[in-house]
Amino acid sequence: MKNLWNDDEAKHYPGELGQRVYTSRLLGRDTTLVLHGGGNTSVKLTETNILGKKEHILYVKGSGWDLETIEADGFSPVRMAHLLALAELDKLSDPQMVNELKTQMTKASAPTPSVETILHATLPYKYVDHTHADAIVAITNTENGKQRIEEIYGDTVVIIPYIMPGFDLARLCAERFSAEATDNTIGMVLLNHGIFSFGETAKESYDRMIQLVCRAEEYLQQQGAWALPQPLAPDEHATALRTTTAKLRYDVVKAAGKTMLLRCYRDPRSVDFARRHDVASLSQQGPATPDHVIRTKRLPMLGRNVEAYTHQYKEYFDGYAPGAKEPKTMLDPAPRVILDRDLGLVCAGRSAKDTAIVGDIYQHTIEVILRATALGGYRALSARDLFDTEYWDLEQAKLRRSGKPPQFSGEVALVTGAASGIGKACVDSLLQRGAAVIALDLKSAVEANYERPDYLGLECDITDNAQVEQALEGGVQRFGGLDMLILNAGIFPGGCRIDTLSDGDWHKVMSINVDANLTLLREAHPLLKRAPNGGRVVVVGSKNVPAPGPGAAAYSASKAALNQLARVAALEWGSDNIRINSVHPNAVFDTALWTDEVLQARASHYGLSVEEYKRRNVLSTEVTSHDVAELVAEMCGPLFAKTTGAQVPIDGGNERVI
Length: 658
Description:
Elements: H1 7-10, H2 15-29, E1 40-48, E2 54-61, E3 75-79, H3 80-86, H4 94-103, H5 117-122, E4 127-131, H6 134-140, H7 145-153, E5 157-160, H8 167-180, E6 187-190, E7 194-199, H9 202-222, H10 242-256, E8 261-265, H11 268-274, H12 279-283, H13 293-296, E9 301-302, H14 306-320, E10 337-340, E11 344-349, H15 352-374, H16 383-390, H17 393-401, E12 412-416, H18 421-432, E13 436-441, E14 455-459, H19 465-479, E15 484-487, H20 503-528, E16 535-540, H21 553-573, E17 578-585, H22 596-605, H23 610-614, H24 625-635, E18 647-650
Parallel strand pairs: 5-6, 9-10, 12-13, 12-15, 13-14, 15-16, 16-17, 17-18
Antiparallel strand pairs: 1-2, 1-4, 2-3, 4-7, 6-7, 8-11, 10-11
């Protein structure tokens, strides 16, 4: 644990709220302290309201904000007087509490305050920090965790037994802190949950958090439970795993009742954990901290029997739902974490971001479990406690409010020739519709086109079968399968009459425009047939298929051959619920092929201006890469759900084609 405070950096965050922002970000930078929205921080300020009266205001982290990137607007200002009055109540339901918090905010546009707002208000310190430090939960998630915390900290922390976040936790903390805190107290440990630190300045509270967590880490070192055994590197499989992964994804989606992505982690630590002889006893107890259950569910699935897992999940729900305070609606029973000897750690989510979050959480969980095991044995919270968190009424309400997901949410598309032009436009259109995209191109620039979890750019020569297989393997490892294949890559050689066309030029065009696409279709077929909503292929053809021109024999013949290949595939793969359609663009000038000089030369050849030349079609309209991409994306959607083997021109109307 390193103290990241930097005086020069801190100067850029003026004022007490600014310092609160700064140290919150410092906490958020360390994933061993908080992960993906976890933890919260606060500061108590005195402000003058519009009536000229001074009020004590608690600025607490708002719902939906991440500590690593939080800004001043991410803190919700709530009147302290009302919070302290609420803390005196005998009981307060979570929905009532949230309503009270919202009605006492001094800024209507602020986010909903944290559910631990009242807890922060009752602690008698200006600054309060709360994290879910891995070292702390590794110690408390053991049989004698409370005794170990007492041994480490003495009276420097108040120890709170586990209770769900919300009003009851706030009341208990206030009572225990009032009765047990001493002049030496600088923090509070919530068993199986996390740790608090306090201070009169942001720096003091932050320093104390680092100090407290360091003491936990040092204890683990002293007990021989800090340095984890070096995992063995996973053996290289002779056979590819992409089809196995796609089949698993199909089963997970069927159980979930909605499209989902998978992400496979085959790093040594993840694979080693999945292959442990005692993985069943270690992994089937529960998460490191109850907050994680909302993302990961209570238990991982071992192996690939999704049907058995869903049956067990339904039994879990049926066993605990009748004892809940209010009626519960069962969440989908599909696993979110899977441990498999071959696949390693597999995480499921509605989006690429969701799968990455689950992956981060469980990789930290593995280390917590291993350290707690080395300390004497990992012990998570009871199934009853975890059920209460998973089916927390606030989370249930959030689910009811969730809107309709994007059209291709949970689906995967692969686009070739994706670095620029029509290919890149297709990537844009698919991402905009919620798809995760695997983008292939001969140019390495494709790898850096986007930095986002739902994009994987891979440099790939599609004429090299080994590279194609490697790209498919990598894409499926990242996203779990393949639903849409966009065959866009191709070359348009310079004009050449047949009587001067060399064998080399002919074979080069054929190898890229036809042979490579045959390989892609063949290798993608086992994945597309396992697409939960049916596989979709869109071929980006050419006007030259129905209307070839002189000097383009190799290009026209190759595109015609690809078109015929797609038609045959449509006939053969309909029984696999795969549909294949083609688009035939023409005169798409916003690509790398059409430089300003070339455009000007061609326009001059016809005695036209550049703008007139771009609109040289029946509708007198310009066709852009975006126009083509939008049609391609729509052909993957429900409007074309009952269409296969079709050829659709997008050329503004070409007289020869018509």
